[in-house]
Amino acid sequence: MDRRALVPDPAVRRAFFQLLDDAGRLANARLASRPDDPGALFALSMATGLETDYAALIERRRFGSFSLSQKNQVYARKLLALNPPVDDAHMTFGTVEYVVGSLPFFLRWLVRLVQISGSKEKGIEELELVARRGRYYGPLARIMLAVVHVREKRSGKAEALLAGLAPEFPENPLFRKELLRVNRLAHPNEAARTK
Question: Which of 169, 157, 63, 73 is nearest to 108 (CA)?
Fold first, then answer.
């Protein structure tokens, strides 16, 4: 796997971070008058989550992304403390739990995150909760779970998730393509017979 940083288009990068700044400014203005506004807290959680993903996936700043993740967790905890809680906030913890749980022990020891145990199982439980009850992140949680199940060699579970996503998003050919790939993994004997 190529671990080098990608070279993003500078104009796209600027526009991306400008949108994150705008979201933060608008959300913070709203929180000034309503400190527990779920929409504003969710916007901040999404913005910091996107910034974390950018640092990890585009700039390849793995450890830098963990410090950004801590900021995201603050917003997620506030969302879960609301009455009723915002179930989409479990996405933050599910993703971090699984990622940290997948690290080798010596790296996990270096990455000390507040209230994150590094349990892949706990991460999967959090993602499953979002897949069932998330208002905004439900489809994303199902995508993440499909990836997790492929990594954990549970192709049948990944296949079931992708089989639900493909008709839900018919305009996205990636779901059908990945479903075929996972189908071959889940049913290797059938794949061998059709060759």
Answer: 63
With contact defined as beta carbons under 8 Å apart, do 125 and 151 qualify? no
Q: Say how far apart CA 90 and CA 95 lie, in whole Å.
A: 8
pLDDT at 108: 57
pLDDT in tens, 64-97: 666 677 888 899 999 999 999 999 999 998 988 8
Three-class SS state of 59: coil
3-state DSSP of 107-163: HHHHCCCCCCCCCHHHHHHHHHHHHHHCCCCHHHHHHHHHHHHHHCCCHHHHHHHHH
Q: What is the Cα–Cα distance from 112 to 110, expressed in whole angstroms?
A: 6
Count of all residues that appear for the chain in the document: 195
- DSSP-based three-state secondary structure for 61: coil
